[in-house]
Structures are given as C-alpha cells and as structure tokens.
Fold:
Amino acid sequence: MRITYLSTHYPSVSHTFIQGEILALEARGVEVLPTALNPPAAGDLLTELDERERRRTFYVKGVSRPAMARLFATVAVRHPGPFLGGLARALASGRLDLARGFKAVAQFLEGVLIWDHSVRHGSSAIHAHFGQAPAAVAAHAAAFGNAIGAQRWTWSVTIHGWHEFATEDTSQLRAKLAAADQVISISDFTRSQLLRLSGPRGWDRISVVRCGIDLAAFPVRTERPVSSPPVVVVTARLSAEKGHLVLLQALAALRRDGHELRARLIGSGPLAEVIEAEAARLGVADAVELTGALPPLEVARALREADVFCLPTFAEGLPVSIMEAMASGVPVVTTYISGIPELVVDGETGWIVPAGNVDALAAALLAATEGPGRHDVVAAARRAVEERHDRSRNVVELERLLRACHEPVGAAS
Structure:
C-alpha cells in the first residue's frame, strides 16, 4: 500500500508521534509519502532524522506561486467540471460567511496540490492527522480525485482532541466525520466525542488506535534516591493550555510550607516570557529552568534524571510525553481530563488531580516525591504503558485499519 500522510507540520517537536508512526508503518512495508501543509521551523529540526524527513517531505506551502498557477491552469483545462465544481462547493461551504468561504477555497486548492503530488507518486489514499485543516485538505483532494473518476480515492483521519472539539463547529468536523472512509481516535474519550458528533450508522468507521512509543528508547531507569531538592520535569509546549503557571503557583505554595522543589520546563512556545515573569513574581525564579526545545535523546536523559514528571494541563487528548515518562520509571503527576485517566490511575499508575487546582497539585507532587508506595506506582505505570502504548503492537492495528480502508477491493493485504 502507498499512502499520502498529511499533517500541519512535519517533522515537528510537538508531533514526534507522527514521525514514529510513519517509520513504524514503513518498517511493516507500507509506502508512506510524508506531506505537510507547512514547512518545519528551524527549531523543529533537532536531529539528523528530522533533517532526512524534511528532505523527503512534500510541503504544500513550499510550492512557488508560479508553479501553483501553472498547475491550476492545467487542471482547470483538463478537468473543468471537477475543478469548477470543487471551487463552487468550497465557496458554498462558507454558508454566506465570505471569510470562511475563501478559506475553504484555499483549502480546496491545497487539496488539488495534494492530489497532483499523490498522482505523480502513485497514491490514491490519503491519511490526515488532526480534524481541522489537514482533514479538510485531505477531503478536498479525495473528492477531486473521485470526481475525475479515473480511480477510487479514499481518505482517513486520526483525531486527537481537545483542539478538534474546541473548533468542531467552525471546522465542520461533523461533516468531515460523515465523509471520511475511516476515522481513528487515540483514546476512548476521543471516540466518545466522535460518537457524539456522528450518527449511529457511522459508528463502525470510528476506531481506537492508541498512540504508541518506542519502548526501547525509554528503558526503565535504575532506582535512585530522590534529589535534594527534588527535580520536577515538564516536557510540553510553552502555551496557556499546558498549565505551567499552575505548577509555578504550586511550587510557591510548597516553598511557603517549607518544601523546596525545582522545575525544568522543556519546550518552546509563546508563553516563555510570561512564565519567566510569573516565576519572578511568585518568588520561585531561582527554582525554575526553561531549557527550550531539546532533541529526543536529551529529553530521554532529562526524564532519567527527574524525580517526578508533571503535566498540569488544561486541555489534551492523551499526551505522548506522559507515556514516555511512565515508561522511563518516572513518577507522573497530571490532571484529570480527556483521555489521561485511561492511562494514569490515581495512586496506582500515577497521581492525577483536577486541572487548575493548585493545592491538589502541590499535594500530589509531595506524594510523588516523598510518599509511601512510590516504587509500586512506578512499576505499575511501566506495565500500563507496555500493555497499551507499545508502538510495535499498536501499529499492527493501525496498518490493518488503513489497509481495510484504502486498499482496492480484492487486493491482498
């Protein structure tokens, strides 16, 4: 099977799971055409593998305007009905909102670029990650290919949540779910929200395939004494929904009560200056380090050296960073939202608190660093990741679903 794999950015520090998924599928014999709407930022190219993936990826917004104009003119002449019909449907989807209609037209034209790239590389199957722009562009590309009628085009999508559900109306997620040939959700919670948006007749096309990690890259560390003071590591984009500011408040509350903890915040993002200013205001600037984005090997090393991993997030699907920490043998403190409780069970595989609750977060950090039963929780956490998030096992189900969706009827699997 040859499949066009579409995301917003590739490679990306925030989407390393997509890279792992592509490589795992290729190891199983699936031919993948990495494709992204946007070229990566310099900060996303942290390894030689990232650079290699960049070189072989097709970037929609990397196509020059003259090349776009030539392609659109050629397509309009050769396939006037499908081209003009696609433009008209895109514009009409704006529902009298011109800004939304013109955005849909732009996404249709991006879909034509994806269609052309796929045709030139022998693919008529598209898989998108995320239900916003990538799903829209994939749907346009497949619809355009089917309108031409030379062969059957299919498209599928992986939905992660929270962002997809926050924009479900403006991104017309309900219509995309109805049009997709296969919908993959990364957790039971995510699937439940997709069932909410879909009619029962479409439920059989919505499956759960949990994100996986390479367990070999995160071996269980040797038991070690807790540092003095304990080190809390966070690996997350520095953005408002990740809850860094709540962690700072918890550190300040613990300091007032005589408990010293240090925090290493790994990642980049728009909230960096706000975090630094808030740490200074709360009097914990000396206990907070912002490292910026780090390559995977350095992230793995930071986890091995951590005393606790904390993700005080407000909005997620089910973060891969939690899986990596649990696999490494680091106690995890996080929040009770979305799909996280499917993996982190309070007092059993980690510590989980209501999002935004400073006192509960501070108490959980103490329990994870000083409380009894810490080692039992760590061992159970590793087993949970092995059972549910081993990429080498999960990719088998992903491949099965993709083949069932995209391979021509009667083709050998």
Notes: The chain has a mean pLDDT of 94. The first helix runs from residue 16 to 27.
